[in-house]
Amino acid sequence: MIFTLDIAALPEGYGEAVLPVGAAKAHLRVLHDDEDDLIKALRDAAVEMVEQYTGLVLGPRVGADALVWRAESVPGWGPVLMGRRPIRSIASITHLDSAGGEQAIDPTTFRVIDQDSIVPKSGQWPSGISGGVVVTFAAGLDEGAVPAPLVTAAKMFLATLYANRETIVTDGAAGHVTAGFAMLCRPYRRIRV
To answer: Which secondary-structure segment (H or E) carries 4?
Structure first.
């Protein structure tokens, strides 16, 4: 099944809650305030990279900051992978009917399984779904609950971004994640087979 997650800016203060700018500057050994805006932007990019690499949402994304999942179809039965975890709750589910009208599905008729998938409690998705499925869900670890290795991975990626502000393409390769970053994040990745 092909799905997308809407791209949304990090909520106000999100990056600061995961990796405070003071800790970021200490890691970079920056003693001045001249580049604080740059460091904050690179820090936020590093936090997003950790989230993309692991599939974990490092802080609460609730209410107006909830995540939005979209697909043109769903299986008739079984779980649907939302692409991020841990899911806290399902806020809404809508779809298009055969006439192109938007229909709501009661989110309380679904449950979360394996922290990253939703499944109808009845086992069957409602009939009449013709496309345009949209699931809005709250996700994320509790504030302050980010595992230390992931904070360290964010610091390492921040340092890479800070030191290499320009992209250099060599033999067609634009870059990669460092071995240290991958090793710190690997235990938190979920690989489905």
So the answer is: strand 3-5
